Amino acid sequence: MRIEAKEMHSIFFKILVNHGVPKEYAGDWAQIFVDNSLVGVYSHGINRFKKIIEYLDKGLINIHEQCTCEVKIGNIERWNGHYGIGPLNAKRAVLRACELAKEQGIGIVAVGNNNHWLRGGYYGSLAADQGCICICWSNTKPNMQAWGSVDTNIGNNPVVLAVPDISKEHIILDCAVSQFSYGKIEECMLKNIELPVPGGFDEKGKLTRDPSIIYQTKRVLPMGYWKGSGLSILLDLIGTILSNGNSVMKIGSFEREIGLTQIFIVVDPLKFISIEKMNRIVHDLKKSLKDSHPIQEGEEVYYPGELETKARKENLKKGLPVIEAKWKEILNLL
Asked: What is the pTM of this model?
């Protein structure tokens, strides 16, 4: 079934308010859920909504506290998220990093004690809309094994890189450092389909494409094997030091996945290059990729973020596709 974006926002808003979220926060939060669904990332949009409501009902999200700046040194700031509304804190942080970048060329905001930011690409897109280049990441609870270990001791810490395009069809890479995020694994389970490539290990330690088996074993595959494992460790280490927040290991000691660490590094490229030259570089790259020959006849080669742009246009026109059972679960929260 398909739901219009305005209707989905209205339902999300009402549910959030009914569960105690102040109206001045509920509208923006609901819109982020809708935006994530519009670009086809349902695992961090509509399919994540019920879990967030459960966190609200357990009192795990401080709905009355916004993030605050605790340390400022030039164009670097350290903020405390106060275990508040993760996406709204992250939005404020990336926009602040953009302000710093516009002033001084580069802006860095490190946020500790925040909650789940939902889809990291959302913040890359916000920075790109400001004409800025963005690198940002978040840590997670321990949900992946360090390479060579059987213990779940590192996170599949999502990382985002974004480059603006004047047409607003930005180039954005948004990926967990596991081959697939748990959200994508859950989505494939709901659709009863296999992963396109192996995404984790079964109970015997063999690679598998079966999402239900990976969800049971909790043994997701680091992207690039030991490379993804190493990247996870360094992202967590750098983030924890800069934010003075919680490491993956510390988050693992909490009852739920709360108190995450997020880093936002934003650069204003127009301090170094003309907008005409930057756009020429971006468009030349896009053209090179689109002109390349696909492996299979009739297929396309996509640049990072292109599929999300296409999904947004289609979903705004046709309505958002939702799994009927999921939508009924959400309506039951009213």
From this structure: 0.95
